[in-house]
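Please go through this protein, sequence plus C-alpha cells, and consider how the sequence yields the C-alpha cells. Keep your notes short.
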Amino acid sequence: MSLRPSLQVAVIMRRERVPGAMSHWQPWRWVLHDVVGHDLAPHAEYFGTAPQCLRQTEDEQIWLHPGFTVELFKDDPEGYYLNLTSPDPCWFVLWRMEEEPAIADEVIAVPAMVSLSYHDAGRWLDAQENVDQVKAPVRSGGMDGRLRPNPLGGRDQTPQTARELQRLARPFWQSGFGEHGQSARWATWPMTKRLQAF
C-alpha cells in the first residue's frame, strides 16, 4: 500500500452533439464533465466500482467512472505549485477512446489517469494523449486546508530552483501522514499549506 498522500475520485465524461457544420464529419464528441468524490469516503460506497451511465438522451450521454487514485509525489512539487497558484486550479484527466466496446454497446471515452500536476498534464499532451481539465472545487474534502499554496511562508515570491522547491517540500513529506497514506497532518508544507480555494 502506498505511503504517499492520496485521495479517491470519480470522473464524469459526457458525450454531446457537435453543433453546426462540423457535425457533418463528427456528430458526437466526448468531453470531461467533472471530477467528483474527493470529499466522500469510503469511495466505493458512494460510486460503486464499475462505470455506469448516469443519463442518456438524444443529445447526450453522461458516464461515471469511479475509483481513480490521485497521489502526490514529493519529486513533483513544482507541478502542484504551478497548478495551485494559477487563477483556476484544476484536475487534469487523461482519457482514451475504447478500441472495442467493452463497457457499453458502442465505444465510449474512458479516463485513464487523474492528476493535480501541470507537469503530468504536459507530459501527457507531449505524448499526443487526450487531456482535459476541469476546475477543482473550492474545497476538496480530502485535501481541505492542506494544499492551497502559501509560497515561501507568505512572501510574494516564487521558488526559482529545484533545490528551493525541495527545501520547501521537505517538511510536508516529513510531517507524518499516518499509516497507509491516510493524512494525519499536511498543513506543515508551506507551499501547499492553505487550500482555501481548492
